[in-house]
Amino acid sequence: MLSQLDQIQSEGLAALATIHDEAALENFRVAVLGKKGSLTSIAAGMRNVPPDQKAVVGAKLNEVRTALTQGIEQIQLALQVAKDAESVKGLDITLPGRPSPSGALHPLTRIRDKAIQTLRRLGFALADGPEIETEWHCFDALNTPADHPARNEKDTFYLPDGRLLRTHTSSVQVRTMETVKSLPVRIIAPGAAYRRDEIDATHLSVFNQLEGLYVDKNVSLADLKGTLEYFFQEMFGEKTQVRFRPHFFPFTEPSFEIDVKLEVKGQADKWIEIAGCGMVDPAVFTAISQSRGDQVFDPNEVTGFAFGLGLDRLAMILHGITDIRHLIENDVRFLAQF
Ligand code: PHE
């Protein structure tokens, strides 16, 4: 039996050396170690071995089984290594990886967030109002007479029920003053505004404004100037010059347009109009007082300033964008630059 075992081992190892595929290896395993395999059949003969030889034969049996099992495993490993090498053939692991593009905030969102952050530091809180407005909130309460050109059907989108798409965020001034309990009012309201404009490089029918309103006792024009100068210097840089030009708005008196002087690449410095502002017209406080039925906004007691700026404009200036339509086209080639 011992010589039989020796023979199985040497023949087996010799056969293994010639095996080069998985199917052949499996056939070999079954032929030797399987239920009816040569080694298994011999092992069954153990019970006929005389007791004094059992230990020796048993040890030999284990030795042969181990040798063959190890032989099979070695071939298996070699086959696997060859298979792996085959599957990555031609792959250059020194090539740089392909970066997956990461998203970024829209330039308008970034400008809006920065404007909000800056004004919040000055104590302004966020306020909101509907984009579909009543004529009263958008015009009447803001001292805008019925024949004012801004109320024209050519300039404003009216709904069949007489409401309209707000033409400016100044309606939020009214909404806020109507509902607050007490002074001071110090709010900012970013949001969309709508005008029936011919669409071109500087006009869209929807654009983004940021409204500001500060009402209390003794709010002065100096407060307005200081606040907005600080604001624009935060937005555009410390050295930014700000200019207030007399203007007219129905709801502020006096009123100003604000220009900032900016370096435009490759051009002489330019004054660019960027916002409207002024001291809240007492007529607005009168309308609010009538609507509220109380004296919190008594025009003889309170003063305030308001401002409205174009966020699209701000973003365009800050990033040197020459066509406002880029801001809404969602072209990744444009957006990826920010
Ligand atoms: N609502 C004005 C506009 O859209 C801007 C403005 C706001 C002016 C507040 C004065 C005060 O042009």
Which terms summarize this structure?
two-stranded antiparallel ribbon; alpha+beta; 12 helices; single chain; rod-shaped; 2 domains; BirA Bifunctional Protein, domain 2; 338 residues
Summarize the structure in words.
The protein has 338 residues and is an alpha+beta fold. The protein folds into two domains: 2-87; 107-335, Bira Bifunctional Protein, Domain 2 (BirA Bifunctional Protein, domain 2), CATH 3.30.930. The protein contains twelve helices and nine strands. A seven-stranded mixed beta sheet has the order 1-4-5-9-8-7-6, with helices on both faces. Strands 2-3 form a two-stranded antiparallel ribbon. A hairpin with a 2-residue loop joins β6 and β7 (252-262). α1 (2-17) packs parallel to α4 and α2 packs antiparallel against α4. The chain is rod-shaped. The model has no long low-confidence stretch (mean pLDDT 93). The site of phenylalanine has 10 residues, from β8 and β9.
Any idea what the CATH superfamily of the largest domain is called? Answer: Bira Bifunctional Protein, Domain 2
Q: Kindly estimate the percentage of residues that lie in beta strands according to DSSP.
A: 15-25%
Largest sheet: 7 strands, mixed
What is the molecular shape?
A: rod-shaped
User: Helix fraction?
Assistant: 40-55%
Strand order of the largest sheet: 1-4-5-9-8-7-6
CATH architecture of the largest domain: 2-Layer Sandwich
What is the count of DSSP helices, taking H or I runs of 4+ residues? 12
Helix-strand category: alpha+beta
CATH topology category name of the largest domain = BirA Bifunctional Protein, domain 2
Strand tally is 9
Measure the end-to-end span: 83 Å
Order of helices and strands: HHHHHEEHEHEEHEEEHEHHH
